[in-house]
Records
---
Amino acid sequence: MAERCSNCITSYVFILFIWKMAALLKKRALAEFSMVLQEKPAKRLRIIKKVPSVTELDIDVLKSSSSGEALLFLLQVEEAIKGEVDALHLYNTLLDHFQKEREPAVRVKLVNILSQMVQGNLIEASTLFEDLQPLLKAETSHKVIAVFLATFHRIKNIDKDDKLHLHIFSLAKKYLSNRSHEVKCAALAVIGDFIALDDKSETFQKTLHLLADFSHDHEPRVRTEALNAL
């Protein structure tokens, strides 16, 4: 009986030993597998998309396209102007199409592209301002007006002509009476950045009072922009 118990204990110890060895081998195998994975980083694939140049795009297609087609085409133009471009032809075509386009979203995109052309030194900032002023005056969409003002705002970092800046500053003030908060915010952003040009103490004080008044506007975004401008 004692011998039988001894054999049982021996068998149990042997099984326990085998189980522990198996667990240890499994742990080592997992560790080695993990090291192999770390030593072989995943390959990164780079997808290269060929962007057509403006010369490859038929810009005159805008003359006969619908608003939806025009917007899709302008997305291509927006990418293409980063390369070589017949700036004058493109500029005149975009301006011409703007006056015929009825969809505000397309007009917004047109102004954005014109803004990018100025930032890319394809068109003079003063030329853009002069050409866009009558378009802004006739514009009825609040979103488009706000984009116009934002475009004029960017001119400050491109053209250092103080006289041009004063024109933009005065123009922005006129749009503070607009009922749209988007337009007011865009105008206030211009005023806040250009206010240093107002070196006449009387008008400077009036501008400060104007900003202070808008800091109490019912629209939170307008209040914030007015406070930022002060």
---
Amino acid sequence: MQKVKLAAALACALFLSACDQTLYSNLSESDANEMLVTLLKRGVDAKKSAQGDVFSIVVPEEQLVRSLEIIGEHSLPREQFQSLGTVFSGQGMIASQTEEQARLAFAISQELSATFSRIDGVLDARVHVVLVQHEQASGLTTPPSAAIFIRHTKDSPVENMLAEIKDIAAKAVPGLTYDRVTVMTELFTEKVKAPVLPVRHWYDNPAMAAAAVAALFLLLCAGGIIAARKLGWRLTKGESAEPKPRR
């Protein structure tokens, strides 16, 4: 009997797992939590599972497409930016000056993107940095510049921080001036919204309606029984059921 119960439980577990699909795996706990909250708020029956130090998000098979649309719209999971130390670590052969410039520009772009992505309500942050360029043939010098793109929600303070954002970028890039920093912002508009569930009344459910009718019938029967017993008690005491005439 015990083996039969164990086999039945295993079969149920396999059946339920077959109905779920792994949406994303190898996530950090913070990324998994953010993805889980985003999906749950939009009506997806998502679950988080742990495999050691990494996590996965599992959703019902019928909600897989909708879940993919939601996480794509919210730029999840967040991009992992590289630091200056990561970009310049493990160098082998001696790089040329052009390669060093390109690597430095990329590293600064990554650092600034990581900084701006930490502002409340920011979904995407991209920074493109061009360092100073000297053309030996013509002797011309092109000053550095930076272009910043930020996609944010309506509750984000980004629009009130544009001056501070430009100032941070100007101070992070060697030789860059405030007037050569361009910032473009985009307000996030949610397209995949939570489904609006219809308002259901108790009488819309046949079972609940039948139960309500049965309960009402029982109450009426109980009231009739109580009234009949009271009338019988009065008759046994010699009282007439008819009201006495007034004199």
---
Amino acid sequence: MNRKFIASIMSVFVGMSVGISNKVNAEINNGWVNNNTGWSYYENGSVKTGWVNDKGNFYYLKDDGNMAVGWINVNNKWYYMSESGAMKTGWVQYKGAWYYLSQNGEMVSNDTVDGYYLGVDGSWVEKNSTNDVTEINDESKNNITMKTEKTEYGLNTKEITVYITNNGKQSAYYGVEYAVEKFVDNKWSKVPFKDEPMFIEIAYNLEPGKTSSQVISLENFENLTAGKYRIVKFSGKCAAEFELK
């Protein structure tokens, strides 16, 4: 057998080997691969990073190519990836706390979803039965002060603005519910509403050192006469006094 013929056969064999090897590598390096340090996703032989949509589920691959699980922060937005790596949406419970993830996976914070208030850290803040301030910030009630815009108003006044200040070191949450009381016979007595009010289910976040305001309608009460009054919030632990003349 001459050398030229042998060289020709070897060339064909090597070509077939390379072709088979490339085909095997292409098959191996497309899709999910477990590389002993985690799952990675390959496309055309190259490892992917960032977001990947696989069969309708979104996954996030870190800079090293490994699939992310648990909480991740991408462009200052929080997402939660399940144990399988798939991005979660809707309500998620994590270490006893509830969070809500929008349809695009972003965690919702400082907003109300399905009637539930989500705090600045995204966790559901459980409000007490008065819909006034959250149980989680019960200690902050002692650091909340309230005052009206003026100390005296005319009898024809229709509304009063009350200012709420957080003097504490932690955020406080409060709702729109309030009551009005009048000082009669050396004690405070609740002034009845004309009709039973329907306060909306919402909670506002008042950060430390900040002041917010709420407009109180006096038209919700019947036969207000001259005297000393106060607007009450936070389960009766905060009040702002004023006088009608």
